[in-house]
TrEMBL record:
It catalyses: succinyl-CoA + glycine + H(+) = 5-aminolevulinate + CO2 + CoA. One of its GO terms (molecular function) is pyridoxal phosphate binding. The gene is hemA. It comes from Thalassospira lohafexi. Keywords: Acyltransferase, Heme biosynthesis, Pyridoxal phosphate, Transferase. Transmembrane segments: none annotated. This is 5-aminolevulinate synthase.
């Protein structure tokens, strides 16, 4: 086997398809969000650009309360936590954060993990492998972190058509009442920006005695009067068995978690290898996340401003004849429909217009639906939006991309 050729050919294949990932090298600047310094690959001097695709949806990563809490924890407690949760790495800030998260979701317990990815992977792989004769029923557009967790569990997996409750019911009926069943789905799907009919899905979970597992990664902090997610907004939060979330998007820091009944949380805490065998977050991370969750429980201003910005951007794209996808959420996807073209549009926006929006290509989205995904935040003002629309129109006309949605 020629290993070098194998690796090189694989990368050449990605490049030929326009799917090779290039990470923009950014330097965030406190007080300037959504602007950032961009360090060009060719070694030219860094320059200021506007980021239009950040998952720090509300700018909480630079909120003074978050920074102050993190600074205080660093100067008071130092760098790392000192171990896994089991071996000296459990900190009072982790415990306080778990209590805060449990309360956010109206649950009795929560469990902090390294990231949202790890929380999904660990929880589904643990439940799927330990529950006897378990079957996991998974929405066809679930995130990779859930898919990998389910696969690793080796539990039987049934896929239900995206957000199709009739199809879900047919599968549940077919499986019968005796088998252990987990219905895994998301609230806001991050690439199309559509939202699951959570109440109807929960009706079915209750009717067929299935555990409901809801990924609210793109919704926590963003929806509901206290930022508890779409389930809170829809008044059904108390009926979800396991809520999974992240601290890295609207909360602006890093980390993932589940919130559920104490017996479920204790089970994952006790059997989940992705929780047990890894070091815990530095106290400063827990402090920052705690400040962010507490702030967004009290304050609606960021959510209201974000919603207005997303609606305005969608409206302005539509008015300019740009093929913006309809979505009932904070995510604004603009269809391109071709991987190479999508990359080219993103490059031109960055190199010629100082606008950064990452191309979204296969396998993140199906081939032929490549797109630019905008996540306007409260700080994307009218001036930045004017510049974005003008730049998009210029690039669309240069590249001859179809304007029909
Ligand atoms: N679930 C969904 C739906 C996601 O989109 C992501 C990441 N983008 C994750 C889980 C993983 O979350 P994290 O970034 O905190 O690892």
């Amino acid at each position: 086997m020629n290993y070098n050729n194998f690796f090189k050919d694989a990368i050449s294949g990605l490049k030929a398809e326009g799917r090779y990932r290039v990470f923009a090298n950014l330097e965030r600047i406190v007080g300037k969000f959504p602007k950032s310094l961009y360090h060009p690959e060719n070694g030219e001097a860094p320059r200021e650009i506007t980021v239009w695709c950040s998952n720090d949806y509300l700018g909480m990563g630079q909120h003074p309360k978050v920074l102050e809490a993190m600074d205080k924890a660093v100067s008071g407690q130092g760098g790392g936590a000192g171990g896994t949760r089991n071996i000296s790495g459990s900190n009072h800030l982790h415990v306080a954060l778990e209590q805060e998260l449990a309360d956010l979701h109206g649950k009795e317990a929560a469990l902090l993990m390294t990231s949202g990815y790890v929380a999904n992977w660990t929880t589904l792989s643990t439940l799927g492998s330990k529950l006897p004769d378990c079957v996991i029923i998974s929405d066809s557009q679930n995130h990779n972190s859930m898919i990998e967790g389910m696969r690793h569990s080796k539990a039987e997996r049934r896929i239900w058509n995206h957000n199709d409750v009739e199809h879900l019911e047919a599968i549940l009926k077919d499986l019968g009442p005796e088998r252990a069943k987990i219905v895994a789905f998301e609230s806001v799907y991050s690439m199309d920006g559509d939202i699951a009919p959570i109440g109807q899905i929960l009706d079915l979970c209750e009717k067929y005695n299935a555990i409901s597992y809801l990924d609210e990664v793109h919704a926590v902090g963003m929806y509901g009067p206290r930022g508890g997610g779409v389930a809170e907004r829809d008044g059904v939060m108390h009926r979800v068995d396991i809520v999974q979330g992240t601290l890295a998007k609207a909360f602006g820091v890093i980390g993932g978690y589940i919130a559920a009944k104490p017996e479920i949380v204790d089970f994952v805490r006790s059997f989940g290898n992705g929780f047990i065998f890894t070091s815990s977050h530095p106290p400063s991370i827990a402090a920052g996340a705690l400040a962010s969750v507490r702030h967004l429980k009290e304050s609606n201003a960021e959510r209201v401003a974000q919603k207005e910005r997303a609606e305005t951007l969608r409206e302005r794209m539509r008015a300019a004849g740009l093929p913006v996808m309809d979505a009932p959420s904070h995510i604004v996807p603009l269809m391109v429909g071709n991987a190479a073209m999508c990359k080219e549009a993103s490059d031109r926006l960055l190199f010629e217009h100082d606008i950064y929006v990452q191309p979204i290509n296969y396998p993140t989205v199906p081939r032929g639906t490549e797109r630019l995904r905008f996540t306007p935040g409260p700080l994307h003002n009218d001036e930045l939006m004017d510049h974005l629309i003008d730049s998009l129109l210029a690039v669309w006309s240069q590249l001859g991309i179809s304007k029909a949605a």
